[in-house]
Amino acid sequence: MAGFVRHRRSKRVIANFSGFEADLLRSLAAQLIELLHNESAVAKTAVDPFEALLDFSGPTTEPDDPVLARLFPNAYREDADASGEFRRFTEGTLRDGKARAAGTVIDVLEEAGLPPEPTDEEIVIDVELDQETAEIWMRALNDLRLALGTRLEVDEGDEDRWDALSEDDPRAQAHHIYEWLGYLQETLVHAVAG
């Protein structure tokens, strides 16, 4: 895969994914959505939209899951009460936004022709994103990369640790996916800015 590039005649950005790559992205996005909706912080769906706007019953403590703690860090590191209040008013909405962004990745891939189930056929999924959708993808790729990096315990400057792993080591394979997500994110940012 060559990453994202700006289309010569339009302001859209495009990328071509193999069926395997597209399915991998869909799987990662689906796993993130599941994680985001698997705790009590998910915003409640109320019948009355006005009531939903006034529902500030979100969580007040940092999530136990390290990925969620990384995606939703404390707003005030030195003030637990202020962090709790900030979290109560914002985390449910932030979770919903991150889940919608990951859902957009899935929708775009499927609209571009990714079959519902993985296939042995050699297919190419051509993705074309307008400015707004590209920005949503940037946020989703960032969240996916943060989630995977947290699970792998990636640290700045630890390239030697990853290079020393055997190619058969599942951690090495997961780290390759982490690097690939970074590559996609970087090429998308350059294509949108270009």
Automatic annotation (TrEMBL):
InterPro entries, per the entry: AosR
Pfam families linked to this entry: DUF2017
Domain of life, source organism: Bacteria
Name of the protein: DUF2017 domain-containing protein
